[in-house]
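It is worth pausing here to work through a concrete case rather than discussing structure prediction in the abstract. The textbook approach is simple: state the sequence, then state the predicted structure, then interpret. We follow exactly that order.
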Amino acid sequence: MYREYLPWHIKDTQRQVTIKNRANKKILDEKITLLNWNVHKNNHSLEWLQDFSKILNSYDPSIILFQEYQKMNHQSILDKRDEYGYGFFPNFMWKDNLYGLINAAKGDIIDYNAYTTKEVEPIIKTPKITLQTKYTLQNAKSLYVTNVHMINFVKIKKFLKQIEQIEELSLSCDDAMILCGDFNTWNKKRMTILEKLISKCGFEAVKFEDNKHLKQPFPFPLDHVFFKGLTFKNSQVIHEINSSDHKPMLIEFLAK
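Step two, the predicted structure:
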């Protein structure tokens, strides 16, 4: 197809999951603080770096999930933080820099799955992706963390195709699981499809006290966090941060 000749197209040989594991800690603690954030490709700007440093210092998240993360040839802030390992999975490239999903955590990845949609978004012709990473909890049980960026600007049947990929991942494991990301659920039809997936797979939705995680002007939230096999403690949105067009979401769980 002609999209293979677009300058941002990633060849199959480049569409690999990059793994960086921690040097000295293999498992996650009982208390899990999750940060979910679509960083809008801004994670090398000074404003974003200052915002992220404040989040690290104030909340010390044990799991970090980013969408639209830019991984440059030189080291990023997550490469410089020894306490975090990560899995990175790209869906496009620009000026030799890769962009995609990153699942970072204070524990080693013991397995992973990555899906790329066959369908692509119009005009730019890039696919969307899903990255699932597996960790060991302090109670010796497993935790699966699935990071999603859903396809947009396409007919609903193409959205459904990616939902089916996520369903396959979600039904294939019986352990604790977190599913979150940018689902691009900006209308009722997309929300209804997502709600059916959540019900079928046995997830609970993390709720927020206000609507500050909504991206204007959309009436429905784009960013969601779902879970099963964990105990929910609290959630918040850091609404004063403006270095991305999405707001960072923080959720605290306890392993059962």
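Step three, interpretation. The chain has one domain: 2-255. The first helix runs from residue 46 to 59.
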